[in-house]
Amino acid sequence: MKPANFCKNAVILLLSAWLVLFVLAPNLLVLGASFLSRDESGFISPSLTVENFRRLLDPIYLKIFWRSVVLALSATVICLGVGYPFAYILARLKPGMRPLLLTLVIVPFWTNSLVRTYAVRALLAAKGL
């Protein structure tokens, strides 16, 4: 086997294991727990039931689900309405202006990382908070 193929296969195996461990397994655990019931203390008891799925058809949950779908669709339409014209304008600009506008788009995405970095820095400072 060629070294390049070995590396490629190793990376694919590593990513597959990562996805199984951190995506598939937790989802299967949640699915399995959805068929269980709760005891008096609020812990999960091992008796199997479909009551949790029956409760999903309660009108209050259906109303919440419908409202969530409407909000998600509204947000998607608004983002598409703003994003597509901006992307069109950005594609038609002179090459010198593109980096500036792309930077203006990307900077807000750094905010979460920036705030977290300063918080960790404050915690790890010589005198802490």
What can you see in these coordinates?
With about 130 residues, this protein is mainly α. Helices cover about 75% and strands about 5% of the residues. The protein contains four helices and two strands, in the order αββααα. It has helices at about 5-35, 50-55, 60-90, 100-125; strands at about 35-40, 45-50. A two-stranded antiparallel ribbon has the order 1-2. The radius of gyration is 24 Å and the shape is extended.
> What would the average pLDDT be, to the nearest integer?
88
Structural class comes to: mainly alpha
Fraction of residues in H or I helices:
over 70%
Rg calc: 24 Å
Assembly category: single chain
**Which regions are unreliable across 5 or more consecutive residues at pLDDT < 50?**
none
Q: Which of globular, elongated, flat, extended, rod-shaped describes the shape?
A: extended
Largest sheet: 2 strands, antiparallel
Secondary-structure element string: HEEHHH
Share of β-strand residues? 5-15%
State the helix count. Answer: 4
Termini separation (Å)? 55 Å
Strand elements, count = 2
Strand order of the largest sheet: 1-2
Short overview:
The protein is mostly helical. It is built from four helices and two strands, in the order αββααα.
